[in-house]
């Protein structure tokens, strides 16, 4: 079994937390990667279900509540080739590498986070946007000034946050008739490339509802 998590929480002594995380993982026989910084920590770990649940319990006490992602082995591959073979606990500058200047990092930290949606809620948002787009495309007598106030679809931008390797699995497609729903596929090779994509598309994103997705 695998777990994946991100926890943005202020950490005063990343080195001490990193050492404690390593000891905890060694005690529970967990392997994988953990990054610890002043702004929080993230990790991807592999082990027995009971030990992973104990790790989750203890980590939630310290840094939670955390949105944990659990995954089992892929059935088409052998377990051994999917398991981590070592444990890495490192102190890093950021939880997720964005390579932002310090002043931009502080602005980002002060900005309220987005709303996490369940897969069902995300699907419902897409359905609503597609339905709204269809209704308004058919309403030829509606003026641009009047539909700007009630057109939820006009405000929707769908952003794929995954890297180019993950997007090969598949992605959401916008029906051709939904011309007021925009889709952005950054085609990044590493997440730090994402900031340039956003800067290049900032005019498309202003005053819009944004749906972002990633497969973790």
Q: What do these coordinates show?
A:
This protein is an alpha/beta fold. Helices cover 38% and strands 19% of the residues. It is built from nine helices and eight strands. It has helices at 14-27, 49-63, 79-82, 102-110, 119-138, 144-147, 164-167, 194-200, 202-205; strands at residues 2-8, 31-37, 40-46, 69-71, 87-91, 156-160, 182-184, 209-213. Strands 4-1-3-2-5 form a five-stranded mixed sheet, covered by helices on one side. A three-stranded parallel sheet has the order 7-6-8, with helices on one face. It is globular and about 55 Å long.
Instruction: Work out the helix count.
Output: 9
Give the uncertain stretches in residue-range form: 139-153
- The neighbouring-strand order within the major sheet is 4-1-3-2-5
Mean pLDDT: 83
User: Rg from C-alpha positions?
Assistant: 21 Å
Q: What fraction strand?
A: 15-25%
Helix content: 25-40%
Give the N-terminus to C-terminus distance in angstroms: 15 Å
Q: What kind of sheet is the major sheet?
A: 5 strands, mixed
| Overall outline | globular
Short précis:
By secondary structure, the protein is α/β, with parallel strands linked by helices. It has helices at residues 14-27, 49-63, 79-82, 102-110, 119-138, 144-147, 164-167, 194-200, 202-205; strands spanning 2-8, 31-37, 40-46, 69-71, 87-91, 156-160, 182-184, 209-213.
